[in-house]
């Protein structure tokens, strides 16, 4: 009985002493650029965090000299009789970009 109690107390003490994860703290991940909570491998592209509607390319992941290139949604003029939808910031790039919205043909 006492062994189980001591084990339970040790587990609780260990869990409560674990450090909290903070997205604002830099995490060393060599070879990757960090944009918010998104990691993109050097030389590759990836969607930015949800809510930004942007794609990033990690050009250099050297500490202190991290370089990225970003690309936003293409601009367009809707066809006659059509509209342009709003951004959908709940989706990642490119699904968040505005789209052509045309009435159904009858």
Automatic annotation (TrEMBL):
Keywords: Secreted, Signal
Classification via InterPro entries: SVWC_dom
Major localization class: secreted
Pfam families cross-referenced by the UniProt entry: SVWC
Lineage: superkingdom: Eukaryota
A GO cellular component entry from the record: extracellular region
Ranges annotated as spanning the membrane: none
Keyword tRNA-binding carried by entry: no
Signal peptide: 1-17
Domain (Single): residue spans on this chain: 33-102
Compartment list: Secreted
Protein name per its UniProtKB record: Single domain-containing protein
């Amino acid at each position: 009985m006492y062994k189980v109690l001591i084990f339970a107390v040790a587990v609780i003490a260990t869990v409560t002493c674990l450090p909290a994860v903070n997205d604002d703290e830099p995490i060393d991940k060599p070879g990757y650029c960090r944009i918010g909570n998104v990691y993109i491998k050097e030389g590759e592209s990836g969607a930015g965090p949800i809510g930004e509607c942007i794609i990033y390319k990690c050009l250099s992941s050297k500490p202190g000299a991290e370089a990225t290139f970003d690309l936003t949604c293409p601009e367009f003029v809707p066809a006659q009789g059509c509209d342009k939808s709003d951004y959908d910031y709940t989706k990642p790039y490119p699904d968040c970009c505005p789209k052509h919205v045309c009435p159904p043909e009858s």
